[in-house]
Every structure is written in C-alpha cells, then in structure tokens.
Specification:
Alpha-Beta Plaits, Aminopeptidase, 4-stranded antiparallel beta sheet, 6-stranded mixed beta sheet, 9 helices
Length: 388
C-alpha cells in the first residue's frame, strides 16, 4: 500500500464542505475508512441530531498515558468572500496550498493522518490518540461530548497537542471567551410622539457605551500577561440591529458582544456586571414608561481559557520536538481550554500554518509548514516508541 503524503490527504479533506452549519459525517466516514485500512479502530460521539460526530482513535497500548492529537473538522463559511480559485479544491501556487480549512485546521489533520502508517508500523510504548471534533468554530462546543466520554471512562493521557495554526511554535495559553446576545425590548410609537415610547436603539447604545467603558477599564486597570500580543482582557461589540424607519421609535434592538479574558480573571463576573447595569440602571428607566420593556442578555457561546505552566513536562517535550525554546500565548480561543478543564490534561497548542491566514478568502498554508509538521510528528512517534 502506497503511503499518502500530507498534501494528498489535505486535498481529500478540503473537498469536503464541513462548514459548521453542515454535517461533517462524510469527512468522518472518509477518515474512518482510511484508519481501517491500517487496522485502526475508531469510535464516534454523535451530536443530538445525529448529523455530526467527534472521532476518537487510539494507536498503541491504550492502558498507558500517551498523547492526544486534537483538531476540529469544521470550517468557517466562504459565502461573501472573493476567492481566486475553488475553495473546496486544493490549489498549489508558489509554495502555497489554497483551500478552505487548509490552514484552520485541516492541514494539521492531514499531517496526523499521514503519520498513521508509520505509527501503526512501530512498537509504541505510549499510545497516540486522535481526537477529531465538530463545531469548534461556533464556540468549541462539539468536543464536549467526546471529553465527557473520556472523563467517564477514566482516560487520562499524559498530554494533549491541539494543532491550531501556530506556525509550529509552542503556545501554552489562550484567553477565555464569553459571547453574548443582547435583546432590548422597548415600546414603539410615531417619532413625533417619541417621549411616549421607549427607544430600544437608544438603550442598546447605552449598553454599547458600557462595553466601551469596561474595555477601557480592562486596558488600564486590569491584569496583564506579557506573553500575549494583547496583554489585557478585552470587551467588544460586533453587531447591532434595530429600527425600521426614521419616523418610528424602535421597539426592538439586538446586539452581539464579547469578552475575551485572561485565564486568571473572572469572565462570568464581567457578564454579570453588564447584566447588573441593565437590571439596576436601564430597565427602571424603561419601565417607568413601558412596564413591558426589558433587556435580556444571553451567553450563547463560551469556552475556558488555557494556562499551561511553562515548566510543565508537556511544554518541555513539545519544545524539544519543535527544536524551539520559546513559547507564547494567543488571544484567539481553541479547544485546548476544554481539554485542560474537563480532563485535567496538560495541553499545548502547536500546529502548521499562520492564524493570520485563517477565515480569509484564499486561505492557504505554506507547503513548508506541512513539511515541518510531518517532521514534528515523526519525532513525536520516536518519543512514543521509546516511552521516555
């Protein structure tokens, strides 16, 4: 059997449209069949609809602590983006491989799968686990079911490597996130009678200003961590929608906002601060005119931060395998926080590609990054074979 290259496997994975709102089962079935060719059994943890699945597979002795290689199968949409080539057909140009998910993060999955024949051929002293998830892009929610299964079965690996794009650099931390949808309900009326209504847009604007105030406070008074490019926690409003016409006082306005918080700080306390402001200051003013008015703040997505100690054995190992002594932390979220929180497993982020290329039109990964990841996984296989 001819061993496929990581680039060949990446081309196969890119061909599956696994945008988060779609099923990932076609890709998962493809991966399961590939693993079966090499005698590797896999298990699925389905979502409630039966249309999405996490995949778990183990190569080597399952009764010993080993390493998890973790990656998500879902991607962000291509709608509204101007691509120079088909986003679902891997296209090579000038040392770059273009396609949706090539960087984030099917490149890592391809390298992991390309390493399977070598791993199977070895007499591993430690197991190598594959954990492929769904719905990472919408809040790191899909992997939760898989982690619950592993926790219930008492599986405690020695470390987890999440292959998010880090240019093969060692990342030991990321911020927590709370994504909020705010719904402001007022009372509509003709704009000539504006004082008789409750302008939902006006009150939503007050919440936006409050988010700005919190952001300013976090920037000047909050905690600091110099390992991050943005060294403090942040607050941000991304969208606001309200009103139908200039001469109508709007009775409804919605906005989406978020907190990205250093792991040592309390993200839920910031959410509560916004809720307290809405309940204690804004709603009383609204309800003096319209008792039915009110504000709802829903946390629709969240994930924990990651904070792996720089002197942890897992960090030392990954540094040795990459040949780098440095480490950093990133503002974007990963499933790493979930692995650390739910399983208590030391977790490091290290994968091919640059995060700057993720989610963009003409997303790409450098061919050299796949080569670097292939070499990294080869050295990881050496470690798993020696068992020390």
């Amino acid at each position: 059997m001819q061993t496929p290259t990581s680039q060949q496997i990446l081309a196969q994975l890119i061909a599956f449209d696994t945008t988060s709102h779609r099923s990932n089962l076609a890709l998962i079935d493809h991966v399961r069949a590939y693993l079966a060719e090499y005698g590797v059994d896999s298990r699925l943890v389905m979502d409630a609809t039966g249309q999405k699945a996490n995949l778990w597979a183990t190569i080597g002795p399952a009764d010993r602590p080993g390493v998890i290689l973790s990656g998500h199968t879902d991607t962000v949409p291509v709608e509204g983006q101007d691509w120079a080539s088909d986003p679902y057909a891997l296209t090579a140009r000038d040392g770059r491989l273009y396609g949706r998910g090539s960087c984030d993060m099917k490149g890592f999955l391809a390298c992991v799968l390309a390493a399977v024949p070598d791993l199977v051929a070895r007499d591993l002293a430690r197991p190598v686990h594959l954990a492929f998830s769904y719905d990472e892009e919408v809040g790191c929610v899909g992997v939760v079911g898989l982690l619950e299964m592993l926790r219930d079965e008492g599986i405690r690996p020695a470390l987890c490597i999440v292959g998010e794009p880090s240019s093969m650099q060692v990342v030991i931390g990321h911020k927590a996130k709370r994504s909020m949808r705010v719904t402001v309900r007022g009372r509509g009326c003709h704009s000539s009678l504006a004082p008789q209504g409750v302008n939902a847009v006006d009150y939503a604007a007050r919440l936006v200003v409050r988010m700005q105030d919190i952001a300013a406070r976090l920037a000047t008074e909050g905690g600091r961590d110099a390992d991050y490019d943005i060294t403090h926690s942040t607050a941000h409003t991304g969208t606001i929608r309200g009103g139908t016409a200039l001469n109508i006082v709007p009775d409804l306005c919605t906005l989406d906002c978020e907190f990205r918080v250093l792991p040592q700080e309390d993200a839920d306390a910031l959410v509560q601060e916004l809720r307290d402001y809405a309940r204690d200051e804004l709603e009383p003013m609204m309800r003096r005119i319209a008792p039915e008015a009110g504000i709802e703040i829903e946390v629709f997505a969240q994930f924990p931060g990651l904070e792996t100690p720089p002197d942890a054995e897992a960090v030392t190992l990954v540094k040795r395998l990459t040949g780098s002594n440095g480490h950093s932390k990133v503002a974007f979220g990963t499933e790493g926080g979930r692995f650390a929180e739910m399983l208590g497993v030391p977790t490091v982020i290290c994968g091919p590609g640059a995060i700057a290329q993720a989610h963009k039109p003409d997303e790409y990964i450098e061919r050299s990054q796949l080569d670097a990841c292939d070499a990294f996984l080869g050295r990881l296989a050496d470690w798993a074979t020696r068992g020390a």
